[in-house]
Recover the amino acids of this structure.
């Protein structure tokens, strides 16, 4: 995405409908009936055994037909091609496609539904990413490199059943909070840099609504995020959990797509160079927020966000993202090189950014964390 290309025109995009609450999964046939009598549910493997039986029965009770197919992970060109071929074997092309599971299940479902020009729904079973609301799918090619498919529309429905989401591992909510917490901080930087937003093909500046939604997400998280994590640890729904669910899925999703991303996401995208299993997306983004605030010299907000990240369980130092005292220098250099050389968004800032600034911020964060753990 080009830097500093925004002109006078502005744009906004979002899902047609958003529904959240306990038991809303059971209303999927009601929502799908707006588009026809048949549906295909692409279901995350973790839920497939259960939902492959309940979903056809649920739709049959409403005089509709539902098919199911298991999604075992790996949002790739190969997996997409297999799913497209599977759809061709069905007695009909379903009127609605429903992605049930994590962000990858929602992403692959958008690609399948978009290919056939049909309605597509996102039904996230955890609150870990912005994928359920967005207008694009991130796929990986045969070499493992990511690329995006931009769809003609956002999901027709995003349905968050909080009875299901609250049972997910608390780490998923913490990741979602990290991803969402960056939205307004990055939006401010991107707007100040005069960059375009994702809406309507990436030619436009954000609307006031896009910026306001990003700010609301940020405010809700800081006020209620700690309480929501406490509730999620006990797997109990509370008003704070419901508010943070909306902030992490809807508000953050609308916010990032209608504003822009910056250092926080650029740093996370570079973490694939680190040893070991890659952390959840929002965990890396949460770390990137702190790096961005140090570089912005916004030290009051840095201290506030550091305390929040520490309290909810987001990474606050290099050790938290997998580095050790022995390899820290090596991997800080590798992360900075990857981010600066290959991730345009680390420079989506209203100020000059250098590798030295990124490295210095990472070392400063470690020093600060050692004094404030």
């Amino acid at each position: 995405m080009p830097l500093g290309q925004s002109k006078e025109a502005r744009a906004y995009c979002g899902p047609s409908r958003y529904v959240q609450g306990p038991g809303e999964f059971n209303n999927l046939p009601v929502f799908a009936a707006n588009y026809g009598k048949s549906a295909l549910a692409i279901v995350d493997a973790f839920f497939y055994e259960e939902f492959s039986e309940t979903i056809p029965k649920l739709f049959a009770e409403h005089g509709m037909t539902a098919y199911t197919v298991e999604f075992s992970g790996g949002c790739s060109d190969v997996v997409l091609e297999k799913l497209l071929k599977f759809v061709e074997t069905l007695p009909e092309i379903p009127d609605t496609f429903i992605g049930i599971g994590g962000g990858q299940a929602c992403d692959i479902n958008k690609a399948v539904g978009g290919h056939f020009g049909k309605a597509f729904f996102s039904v996230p079973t955890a609150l870990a990413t912005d994928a359920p609301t967005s207008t694009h799918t991130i796929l990986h090619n045969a070499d493992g490199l990511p690329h995006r498919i931009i769809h003609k529309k956002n999901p027709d429905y995003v349905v968050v059943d909080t009875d299901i989401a609250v049972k997910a591992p608390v780490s998923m909510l913490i990741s979602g909070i990290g991803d969402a917490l960056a939205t307004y901080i990055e939006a401010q930087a991107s707007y100040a840099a005069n960059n375009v937003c994702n809406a309507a093909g990436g030619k436009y500046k954000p609307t006031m609504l896009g910026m306001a939604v990003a700010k609301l997400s940020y405010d809700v998280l800081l006020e209620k995020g700690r309480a929501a994590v406490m509730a999620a640890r006990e797997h109990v729904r509370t008003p704070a959990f419901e508010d943070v669910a909306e902030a992490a899925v809807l508000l953050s999703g609308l916010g990032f797509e209608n504003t822009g991303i910056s250092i926080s996401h650029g740093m996370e995208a570079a973490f694939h160079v680190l040893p070991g299993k890659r952390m959840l997306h929002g965990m890396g983004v949460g770390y990137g927020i702190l790096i961005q605030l140090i570089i912005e010299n916004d030290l009051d907000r840095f201290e506030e966000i550091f305390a929040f990240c520490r309290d909810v369980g987001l990474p606050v130092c290099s050790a938290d993202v997998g580095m050790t005292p022995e390899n820290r220098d090596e991997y800080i250099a590798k992360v900075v090189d990857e981010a600066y050389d290959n991730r345009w968004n680390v420079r989506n800032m209203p100020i000059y950014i250098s590798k030295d600034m990124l490295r210095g911020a990472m070392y400063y964060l470690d020093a600060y964390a050692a004094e404030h753990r």
Notes: The radius of gyration is 20 Å. The chain has 13 helices and ten strands.
